[in-house]
Every structure is written in C-alpha cells, then in structure tokens.
Task: structure prediction
Amino acid sequence: MHPSEFTYYDLRGRSGSHDINTLFPGWRGKQERLLVLSPHDDDALLGAGYAIQAAQANGAEAHVAICCDGSAGYSRVAERDTIVATRRAESIRAHGKFGLVEGKTLHYLGFPDFSLVSYIGWKLPAGVEGTLRPVITLLREMGITRLMIPNGYREHSDHTAAYDIGRYDGVQAGDPVGVDWAAPCKIASALQYSVWGDLSPEDALVCSAHPSIRANRAVRAPEAAEMLLGEALAEWQSQGEIIGDLLAARRERAVHGGMLEVYIAFEPRPKLEYKPYVDLVNGIRVE
Result:
C-alpha cells in the first residue's frame, strides 16, 4: 500500500494528515523498527494491524513479539494437547501475510497463558527467569525504535501484564543496565492499542460532545488493509469460536473512506517537572 492511503489523526488537536509523524513523532523512514508486543498470538493483528501496515508503507521494518504460548486457546477437549503446535502454525501463516518471518521479525517468548503476570521481572522464585532479560534483549538486538503495547485497562490479565512489561522494559532497553545482554537502544515513542476493551480514562480526551472518547491518536486505513487483515485472521481456524465476536465487531470500524484504529500515545516514564510546583509555592503566602 502507498503511504498516502493512510490518514492519521491527533484526536485532542482535532487534526488529521497523511503524515505518520502524527503517530510516531520524529519518524525516520527506513531507520525505524516497530515492535508490537502481543499478549497472545492474534492480539497484535486484532489491535494494531493497521499501524503495522502503515509503518511498513512508510519504510519501517515491523516486528511482533508474542508473550504467551496459546496453551489455553482450545475450544474442544480433544485439542488440548495439540493446541500450542496448532496455534504456532496458524500464527506463522497469519503473520506471514504481513511479511513477518519467524525468528527474524516474528518472535515467540513462550510464557504460559493466563500466567504472564507471574513472570514479570528478572530472577523469580525457584530459579525461574522472568520476562525482563528476553524482552530487553529482543528490543536491543532488533534495534527497536517504536513500541506498541496492549491496553492495560480491564482487558485480559495477560494483556495487563504485557502492558506492564512493555511500559517498563521498553524504557529499560535504553538504560545502561544489563549491558551484557545487548547494547542499549532507546525507544523513541510508544503507543497503546486496544484488542477489544475500552482504554484507560486516565488519558481520556476531554470532549463534551463525545465524553466516551479515550484514545488520543487514530489511523484511517484503506479497505485493502482490512482485507489483508481478514486473510491473516482467517488462518486462526482453531480460534473461530473464541474470537468470533471480535471479528464481527470489526464492522464498527468502518469510517468514510476506510477503516479506523485508535491508540493512546503516552510517555512510559513521565518526568516530574518541578517548575509548576516552585511557581505555586512561591505564590503561597505563609502566615
């Protein structure tokens, strides 16, 4: 797809353009490496499929890192012992539609479903290693410059855990810690995407006409982007019953001239600015 087929919106500024800098400030084209942290194998495409295509159209190399192994994703008991292998094969085919290749731009972390929160950290009890080293090492070795993480507000527990991992490890990847894992690299910006749940009201758009709007960024993608996404999602035949409602709800994304996907642009490590406090205290009369 051509870059001009995507339109980007700053929802707080009520402005739109064909410039991807609206989503990723300071965009550097072919120097960019986008990584979407996906709790489960289908989440990145469900929530950030348009952003991936937009980044690729604007010269970036896109990566997806899947946190969980898919072991709970069976709808029939007979599939229980084979579901991990089944989903892995489906996932490889689905992401292949986007040009992602296992071991190069498609990465599997392999933590168990419904358990990701228990693996946050570095050295865990019983000698188990957590998420910190593999995630930071991946970000550094791949030279990731942009990071997209899942909604951390009232979705799945694995989504919340992946959000916490992304907002913390994404920053740590650029810090001089664990430098023997790989050379530090700085993530230039981060976005939150939603798989199915509403985003956090903490970052809500103040809009009296539309008080329910919480995202602050959006992309309008061409119909062709949804068609490609549909082909990819169809590969997850084992997940038909589980994600059926999500697929049906995608019709709500239709907007004049294309399809909509929304995000929250946020600062994972906001700096505390003292000047407003100094000004406030200087203006308080002490009696």
